[in-house]
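Re: that chain you flagged

S.,

Sorry for the slow reply, it's been a week of failed gels. I finally had a moment to sit down with the sequence you sent. For the record, here it is as I used it:
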Amino acid sequence: LSEASVKRKKDTNEGRMMTTKQTIRWEYVAVVLVMVGLCTAIPSIKKVPHITSTSMVSKRAAPQHSVICGDGWCDVGETCTSCPSDCQLCSPSSVNLTSSEYFSLSLLWSPVAGASFYILQIMQEYDWGLVYNGTNTSFDVVGLLPGTSYTFRVSGAAEGKVGAFSDISSFSTPSGVPKNDGNQQPEVFYTDTTVACIASAGPIDFGAGPLTYSLFEVSYSPDCCWGEPPFNASTGNGVCYYGSAGTVFFVRSAVGNIWGVNNWSDPLQVAIPTSVCGDGSCSPEEYETCADDCAGAPEIPQPPYLIYGGSKWQVIGWNNSNTDVTYRLQSNSSGVWISVQMGDGQAEIDGLIPNTNYYYRLSAQNDVGVSPDSDIVVFTTDSDVPSPPRRVTLSIIDRTALEVRWQVPYTDNGS
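Prediction finished late last night. Pasting the structure tokens below so you have them in one place:
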């Protein structure tokens, strides 16, 4: 190539390099401008301040002005006590009971600052019902039922707002059943030789209503089997028990009204008499109290005596000088008196148990009536040989020995 041609190529290459450098230089400028623009835009994105829960409470944030009660705001530092006009009313103390009757309860509660009236509510099944709406701090709730529990609450109120309710309180009216005050006892009002009729002397305190009925239960024992056959509870003002002369039983009573029945009275022992004064027959019970019937009745005899006896028999005698009188001898060894002889002046009693006490008494009888029993005497049968040993067994020990075993006799008969 010529020198001129080489020079042109060199100039051309240098020109291209300058152009490239200029292009790169402008790209750097563009990048810088973009970065500057971004930095300028970032400060315009403002951070949202954090909202705390204190900004959501009913009290407003600390005011820029002084706290004033009555400005309509419940400010920090104001309470239901210090400023009831701005803040919610305080709740009253729990409802208190001042007195109770069968059909009413008298209630009282403390006043609330700022309250112009009060709302008293009662629980009715599953919801609260209004009992009282007024300015008083006490109220008599009427129209209730005896022996029933009731639940109440109360709140203070003012124009446009109602305070919180108090804690609930429960009170009961007194039981309406008659009171068993010790004056309630059954009493016998009629007897003859076939019947005894008993009425109940009711209590002084009838409860919440008049007495409407009486209940009676009878039994052979004061401690057992009340109301079991042949004796059943009866209703009404009285009850009559029919039975044979001399029957002894016990009766107790209770009274009731529309609200219920009270507790049973103490038992009363009742006996159907063997005779009645004025019927012309003298019984032992009438001997000293019914002279008209018992005039001419035999005197009380002397006690019987033991003539002789053994381990299983006794001969008992008595004075039978009065031939117009029949004597009755009774014996008792187990708590029950049985007649063993009528008439003659002595009685032989066999089939007795050795070494056992036998009690005897004697009464006299004529056409007028029967005397009371004599004094009781006791005689003891003689001892006897023991009863045979029981469960005798024989065992062979070896060729020269036997073993005999037995159990003790049922009784030693006093030996």
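What I noticed first: DSSP finds two helices and 25 strands in the chain.

Talk soon,
D.
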